[in-house]
Design brief:
With 231 residues, this protein is an alpha/beta fold. It folds into 2 domains: 142 residues, 3-Layer(aba) Sandwich (Rossmann fold), CATH 3.40.50.300; 67 residues, Helicase, Ruva Protein, domain 3 (Orthogonal Bundle). The protein is built from 9 helices and 5 strands. The protein has a 5-stranded parallel beta sheet with strand order 2-3-4-1-5, with helices on both faces. Helix 4 links the parallel strand 3 and strand 4. Helix 6 packs across helix 7 and helix 6 packs across helix 8. The radius of gyration is 19 Å and the shape is elongated. The protein starts with 25 loop residues before the first helix and ends with a helix. It comes from Povalibacter uvarum.
Length: 231
């Protein structure tokens, strides 16, 4: 269960630590990069607004642990919460469970009880629970006091948005990893024309890569303008 769950959730191949530009989040990312099962605290809570890279980092943790031969699972609650809390069955036996968007299930008694039980199981087996939300633990709306206490009782880490220069660096890093060059002036143009959240920027960069290959053209500003205007 290192890379895929029975319910079909797969890790993105690109969501690894080497492709994540930490910027001002360097200390937080280094903590996450060096997480190991069996070391306290049981719970690590990551919070930050949309676009700070929470999902990327949770998947990177799973990928890294899987590469070390440890069992790990990534659970994006926004996508799978409707399937019911029964999907957590057996997760307490893993080395690490990463729960994305925990505020999605706030106020749902069944889910909250199941997550509290999961924390207990992982704690007893010296496993690791890594949780993300857009807000700190106390602001998630979790009603079960014991669960809320556990979520805030370990490490609580904050992720900050990248500034413009860091976003440009992150885009050029992603392009390099994908095997193509993103000129500085083209990256600057993308930030002027597109929403400035990294998820949208990276998604469009991948589209540009495909478009440039199909057209056999480099990622110049005129070419990128054509692609954007044609959407």
């Amino acid at each position: 269960m290192t890379n895929q769950l029975p319910l079909g959730v797969k890790l993105r191949d690109s969501s690894v630590f080497d492709s994540f530009l930490a910027g001002r989040n360097e200390s937080t990312v280094e903590i996450l990069r060096t997480l190991r099962a069996g070391e306290p605290p049981t719970c690590v809570f990551i919070h930050g607004v949309a676009g700070t890279g929470k999902s990327h980092l949770l998947q990177a943790i799973c990928a890294r642990m899987g590469g070390q031969g440890q069992s790990a699972a990534y659970l994006p609650l926004t996508d799978i919460a409707s399937m019911g809390s029964e999907i957590l069955t057996g997760c307490g036996e893993l080395a690490c469970v990463c729960i994305d968007d925990i505020e999605t299930i706030a106020g749902d008694p069944a889910w909250e009880r199941a997550l509290f039980a999961l924390h207990q199981q992982l704690d007893e087996r010296q496993g690791r629970l890594v949780v993300s939300a857009v807000v700190p633990p106390a602001a998630t709306g979790i009603a079960l006091a014991d669960l809320r206490s556990r979520l805030g009782g370990g490490w609580v880490l904050t992720l900050h948005l990248l500034d413009e220069s860091e976003q440009i660096e992150a885009l050029r890093l992603r392009a390099q990893i994908r095997g193509f060059e993103l000129p500085l002036e083209t990256a600057q143009y993308l930030l002027r024309r597109l929403p400035r959240d990294m998820a949208s920027l990276c998604e469009f960069l991948d589209e540009l890569d495909d478009a440039s290959l199909a057209a056999q053209r480099k990622l110049t500003v005129p070419f990128v303008r054509e692609v954007i205007d044609g959407k």
